[in-house]
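Batch manifest, entry 17 of 40.
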Amino acid sequence: MRIFTKFLLGLMLVLAVACARTPARGPAPGPGANPQLGDSQPHPWSSGHPYGHDVHGIDISRWQGDIDWNRVRGSGISFAFIKSTEGGDHIDPNFRRYWNEAAQARIPRGAYHYYYFCRSGAEQAQWFIRNVPREIGSLPPVLDIEWTNSKTCPRRPPPSEVKREASIFMDIVGRHYGQRPIIYTTVDFYRDNQLGDMRAEFWLRSVADHPRVRYPGQRWAFWQYTGTGIVPGIQGNVDLNAFAGTRSDWARWLQTRLTR
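Output type: structure tokens
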């Protein structure tokens, strides 16, 4: 019965996305195709903006506080990536609450792990698996890998070590959830470690210009285009992200990338 219930939840998420109202195309008063979204510090895009994309989502952590998930969904948000774990011994205190609340609001959601350079990829993979449920209908796991200003772990390993340990994490986590993790990264980290040769789907941070400019030649599935987004139902600023394709592409992507 539990398996059947989880299957129904996953199916409901796909149907909710596929049947959702398609927002108007073209630039909107706020970020995203839906004018309900905004930005407290809008950027003057010169090489292409994110506003015409059909599908937009958020990524969140404990700092977003209490969230009205039904208002978030009603504003046109189509997905949420939620911080779950960091390193090998930290879990975001709001993860489980956000995880359950987003599901209840029928927003497709996934978990992301913030990588720590003083733990092995295998250790961090096991910590993620220990704390993130394997639920039918979830988005793929995400490995957030970027340079940090950590006082407890200031080291910056060479590219060969970075990619070796990241691949170990992705292999272990991918086998457990049945979906290979997405890599989230930043411009400097991507460049310093030549991440383009990794076997991965990418979620790229680019808040100053289009990813085609900051990551030449790199394909991407998600683009984090601002850290100062405004979304009804969330107090304060929040990260906003665009999906690379149309709403039909999004429905197809979900069919192949949701956890089963």
